[in-house]
Amino acid sequence: MRNLMRLLIALFTLAAGSSFVYYLIFELNLFNDYMGYLAKHALLAFLTLVFGLAGYLVAPNVMERFMVMTAWMEHKLQHTPIQELIGGAIGLIVGLIIANLLDASVSGLPWFGTYLSVAVSLVLGYVGMRLGVKKREEIQGYINVIPKFGSAKERFQVQQREVAKSNPCYKVLDTSVIIDGRVADICKSGFLDGTLVIPAFVLEELQHIADSSDLLKRNRGRRGLDVLNKIRKELDVTVEIDQRDYDDLSEVDSKLVRLCQELGGQIITNDYNLNKVAELQGVKVLNINELANALKPVVLPGEEMTVQVIKDGKESGQGVAYLDDGTMIVVEGGRRFMGQTISVLVTSVLQTAAGRMIFAKPKVGDGQKSTSAQTTALSEVNAIV
Asked: Are residues 357 and 248 in the same domain?
């Protein structure tokens, strides 16, 4: 195979050299004053052989360089995303089409017209290819729209995604909300719009937690990584990994606040302390716990509900029950109904950022509101906060 390639290169240089020498001798008539007809043909034959021999000698070096260049191009193509290849190809085609339209005007110029035409084709082809690579996402968006013209809903969704890309609303996730996992369900329901930003330093912290020797921490870290994979692979949400880090800050919370200030974004968290610090520095916070509390059913004093008393309360005679969403119900005089399902009447509701607590009394009996019980419960909630 190598010998065949070497022979082909030699034949190519021989033919090219022969054409070049023929043009010099018989077209330009450079040697009319020095040579006759036979001498010119002899010179043509000699120089043709010289070109052929030169091509045969340099062929191995040419083939080696060609193989290196081919391997380099193959490596680059393998590591180039298909979107860039498609965008570059479309841009190149458009550039060459424009160059072809200009060719009629350019090639008619004096002796440099042909060369100018080639230069215009090269320049416009290169510019088109570069623009195609840079605009690959927009090109892909238009391509994706083509088969969906029949569905107004899908067209609207595509338009919404394009608007979100052009004017992103950044939502920065912190470590606690990723480990919590509820943010994935919120994204799936469509309540979160914009672009989710996952800082590299948050990923690093998650990795440290997942590699911890403590079993509980390790499981929490792995759960957080699984949640991120689910958001990226299964949900129709734009996700970006931000590589910025701040060497002058050691705390992850401080880095999150700085990043949100630079992006003009919002923090999604369920960390109470981070919530307060971010608000003090003018960063908007979306607290998952506050959202969960807001979605709990509203309970008003005087309403009746059925609960199961499962344990003693802090005060004498108290019983404690829970709703399905985890809300604690303090039943005054409910201790005697331990393990039973009873009907109670709501007497008051205590709502804080840390959660909600309901005070009730048995529907049947002389249960009365215990002010001391509410005071004790309030102090416990404040201690948690």
From this structure: no
Q: Is residue 140 part of a domain?
A: no
d(CA 124, CA 203): 43
H/E stretch holding 255: helix 252-263
Find the angle CA(16)-CA(48)-CA(20) to the nearest 5 degrees.
Answer: 40
Pick from 354, 348, 351, 353: which is nearest to 374 by CA? 348
Residue 202 — left, alpha, or beta (φ > 0 → left; ψ -120 to 50 → alpha)? alpha
Q: What is the pLDDT of residues 24-60, one digit of tens each?
A: 777 777 766 677 777 777 888 888 888 888 888 888 8
Structure tokens at 286: 């979306």
293 is written with which tokens?
A: 């509390």
Are 227 and 269 in contact by the 8 Å Cβ rule? The answer is no
147 located within any domain? no
Residues of the chain with pLDDT > 90, as a percent, come to: 3
Contact 120, 103 (CB under 8 A): yes
**Are both 308 and 376 inside the same structural domain?**
yes
> Hey, what are 163's tokens?
């608007």
**pTM value surpassing 0.70:** no
**Segments forming the whole domain that contains residue 334:** 300-384
Same domain? 283 vs 333: no
Distance CA 366, CA 185 (A): 44
Number of domains in the chain: 3
| Number of helical H runs and strand E runs in the chain | 14, 11
d(CA 306, CA 362): 10
Give the integer Cα–Cα distance in Å for 82 and 306. 60
Sign of CA dihedral 202, 205, 211, 213: negative
Confidence check: pLDDT of 167 > 70: no
Q: Is residue 162 part of a domain?
A: no
> In terms of domains, do 310 and 281 share one?
no
Amino acid at position 1, single letter: M
* Pair 281, 309 in one domain: no
Residue 109 shares a structural domain with residue 87 = yes
Residue 147 has pLDDT above 70, yes or no: no
Is residue 141, in this structure, part of any structural domain at all? no
Nearest to 331 by CA among 355, 365, 354: 365
The pLDDT value recorded for residue 321 is: 92
